[in-house]
C-alpha cells in the first residue's frame, strides 16, 4: 500500500506514465487497502464486527479488534458503528441499538465528567464506565 501511495504522490516525467484521475486514484487505494485487510484477516489480525470488514482499522492501526470489543459491549471504530447503524452488523448476539463508536463513547464520558447529560444513549458498558467517573 505504501508503494502505491508513494507512486501516486510522486510525479513521473516519463510521458508513457499516465497519471490517475481522482476517481481511479481513489479506487486503486481502496483496492490496495482491501487487499491489506484480507491479508490481516488471514494472519488473524483482523476481527471486524461487520458483514464487510471495515477499512478504517486497517488504515489507522494495521489490525481490527472491533469484533472482540463489541462482544464485550465495548465501543467500535467509527466505520463499524456506521455499518451497524445501516443494519450491516455481523454479531448476532449484539443489540444494534447499543453499538457506539469510540468517538461517541468519549463524548459520553466527557459529558458525565463535566456533570452534563450524555449526548445520547450509548452502550451499557460505556454508560457504566461513565457512571464510575461521575464525581
Structural summary, described in words:
The chain is mainly alpha-helical. The chain has one domain (2-99). Helices cover 52% and strands 0% of the residues. The protein is built from 7 helices and no strands.
What descriptors fit this protein?
135 residues; mainly alpha; globular; 0% strand; 7 helices; 52% helix
Task: Summarize this structure briefly.
The protein contains 7 helices and no strands. The chain is mainly α and 135 residues long. It has one domain (2-99).
How do the strands and helices of this protein lay out in sequence?
Elements (H helix, E strand, L loop, with lengths): L1 H8 L12 H21 L13 H5 L5 H6 L6 H8 L16 H12 L10 H10 L2
Helix pairs in contact: 6-7
In round numbers, the mean pLDDT is: 81
According to DSSP, the number of beta strands is 0
Please state roughly what percent of the residues sit in beta strands, choosing from under 5%, 5-15%, 15-25%, 25-35%, 35-45% or over 45%. Answer: under 5%
* Shape designation: globular
H/E series, N to C? HHHHHHH
- Class computed from helices, strands and strand pairing: mainly alpha
Number of H/I helices: 7
Number of domains: 1
| Major sheet details | none
The residue ranges in which pLDDT falls below 50 over 5 or more consecutive positions are none
- Cα distance, first to last residue? 47 Å
